[in-house]
Amino acid sequence: MSVAVDDALWSAVGDPIRRRMLDLLLGDGGGTATGLSERLPVTRQAVAKHLVVLERVGLVHAVAAGRERRFRVDEAQLARAVAQLAGVGAAWDARLRRIRDIAEAIERA
After folding, report:
1. Which residue in 13, 63, 67, 71 has its CB near the most CB atoms, within 10 A?
2. How crowded is residue 8: how many other Cβ atoms within 10 Å of its Cβ?
């Protein structure tokens, strides 16, 4: 049982700061690196680097807003990530059921 997983996508969402950034952007309908840095325990420069990673995998897109860029979450790409996670979860559930079935068969024997 194989589930196709986009490693770059999961590497991007594997970082807790980036997940928090996605939460903030979703909750606020978008935001800037400066605005995010005011709400996160990292510098604005670190936020900008995290945004580059998220943008590279298509989870966020930027639009120029004056001197800054305003970032929004790409909900279609986020849904793709959620679907991958659900697929991985289902695959592990099936594996665990098989292990349970084998263990029960051994116990009965």
Report:
1. 71
2. 11
Is the confidence at residue 87, as pLDDT, over 90? no
CATH number at residue 53: 1.10.10.10
pLDDT over 70 (residue 56) = yes
Q: Give the list of residues 6+ apart from residue 73 with CB closer than 8 angstroms, or none.
A: 22, 25, 26, 30, 59, 60
Domain annotation covers residue 2: no
Which residue, 2, 3, 1, is CA-closest to 81?
Answer: 3
Q: How confident is the model at residue 1 (pLDDT cuts 50, 70, 90)?
A: very low
**Spatial separation of the C-alpha atoms in residues 46 and 50, rounded to whole Å:** 6
For the residues 75-100, what does the mean pLDDT come to? 90
CA distance linking residue 14 with residue 98, whole number of Å: 28
